[in-house]
Structures are given as structure tokens and as C-alpha cells.
Amino acid sequence: RSFGKHRKMFNIDSKVSRMAFCILFQATLALGLISSGRAAQAQATYPDRPVRLVVPYATGGNADLQSRIIAQKLGEALGQQFVVDNRAGATGIIGTDIAAKALPDGYTLLFIASPHAINPGLFATLPFDPVRDFAPISLVGSTPLIISVTSALPAKTIKELVALAKTKPGQLNYASAGSGGPGHLAGALFNTVTGVNIVHVPYKGTAQALTDLMSGQMHLMYPSATSVLPYIKNGRIRGLAITGRQRSARAPELMTALEAGLPGYEASIWNGILAPARTPQTMVNRVHRALVNIIGMPDVRDRIIGLGADPMTSTPAEFEVFIAAEIKKWSQGIKDSGARVD
After folding, report:
1. How far apart are CA 170 and CA 192, in angstroms?
2. Could you read off the pLDDT of 296-336 as tens digits, one per residue?
3. Sign of dihedral through CA atoms 276, 281, 283, 284?
4. pTM (2 decimals)?
């Protein structure tokens, strides 16, 4: 039948030509079957060589430290080394682009943080699509921010802070570690949700911003739990609420923003793992199963909590929905607030 279909195309008029065509067709079919067999075998034995875990942030940061815990455990679970490859720059865009353009063979994975969902709202164009160019695997953890005020400010609750800010529009300020970062955008979202006007003051890092918050030069800040909890514990800064979905294991006495009266407000720094789009689902599923087991290990949970994060996992489908929702939330919040990268 194939011969008849392609007779005119190949101008086949002789028995010899017909035989040659049949041999060629069968050889092509055999090569296809061999290729499919090799692909199936590669998926069945995955991983059979080291896997690169691209981290688009600098060494020593929270994302880097979490990624190294996960990489070590993935290597132990799957029998191959998972090598952390830090490719920092442009709020994660450089490393993310490297992973987006990698072969979708399961041997390049990407450890992302919340800027993955923030960048589409801050930059007019990106060299990759944060949704279409990746295959989600799982969330790993979420590091809450803490709505923190200088101890000299009379507000002791979120409601009191909002009431005070409404009587002093443009007179209160909030510090951040830099424009376009989570602390900046958490404050912009707070302004949008509550209808207040608290002025953003960007710093070139967290340390000096916290120093000025303690001294009273800054009124408010949205630092990570890791950086601010020691000062809250000793009373030099007052913590009003956690910005995550649940109370922090390191500070269970602090209520969430939702509990404090801010419905719809969430601004955590989350982390997760992606693969390049079109990575075989069997490979995605194998890494996912290993991750779920790893995050459930008591020693891993303790180490992640020690970094100020709350361990968590998700299915690939749940992670895909989560990323899309985060992109929508931050894009709208950035648009409403006029926040930009200076």
C-alpha cells in the first residue's frame, strides 16, 4: 500500500525499483523502532550520568543553600551526582535562560525562586517564556517575609498600622534590600491591598536597611524571617505578621497576614524545581517521587526550617497552576503600584 501511495512520487516502474523502495522503507521503519527503543531505555535507566541543577542565584544565599541540600539528597536517592551550577545575574534571568535552552533530556534541571514569577511583570521582554519553556516538577519550600516595624512606631497590629498609614499618607516609609526584590514588591502589594501610601526606600542590601529600621529612620520593612527574627526576639524590631499561607515553624506566635485581617495578601519567597519543556514525563515523575520522599525526611525538614523556610511539595500539575497564579498576581500588583526596577 505504501508503494502504491508513493509510486508516482518516486517514479517506480520496475521490479528492481520496487524492491529497492521496499528495502528503504523497511530500513527506515527499523531505524525508527531502534530510536524509540533507545529512548525508552534511556528513560528506564535515568539518570545514568551526573545531572546539572542550575541555580540562577549567587552562592551562599537562601536558594543556593536549599538547592545544595536537595542536590545531595537527590544524588543519594537516584544513584547519580546532582551538580549545583550557580549562574547568577539579572534577578535570575541569566541562569533561567540557560536552563530553558538546554536539551530536554532530564540532565539539566532548574532551581527557581519567586523572582521567576515576578520578572514577567517587571521586564517588558524575557528571553524565555516562564511557563511554556518549562516542565514543573515540584515546590520545595517557602520562606515567609515578616511585616516588621520599628519598635518606636505605635502600631502593634496590622489594623493599627493601616489606620496610622491612612492618617499619614506619604509620611511613612518602608525599606527594602533593593528595587524589584521581594521586600520591595511585598510593600507595593501591601499598599495596593490596603489602600495606603507608604513610601518605598530602596537600599543596597538587607543589613543597612535593618539597621535603619532598628534606629527608627525607617518605619517599616518586609524582610525574610531568617534575617529579622533575631531582632524580633530581642525586641529591637516588632513583627506584626507572617506573609505566608501558614505560620512559620520558627515563629509560630506570629499570625499570618490573613489571620491579621489582610485577605488575599501573600508574599512569600518560594522555591521549586523545573525541567526544560518537553523533558520526558517519566523522568519528571522520577525526580518528583524522589523529591517528595526527600522533603519528608526529618533531617532535611530540620535543615530547611533552619534556613527560615517551610518545607513543602506539590504535584507537577499543582506547581504549574501555582506558577501561573503567581505570575498573574505579581504582574497585576506591579501594574497597580507602578513598581519598577530603578
Report:
1. 14
2. 999 999 999 888 888 999 999 999 999 999 999 889 888 87
3. positive
4. 0.80
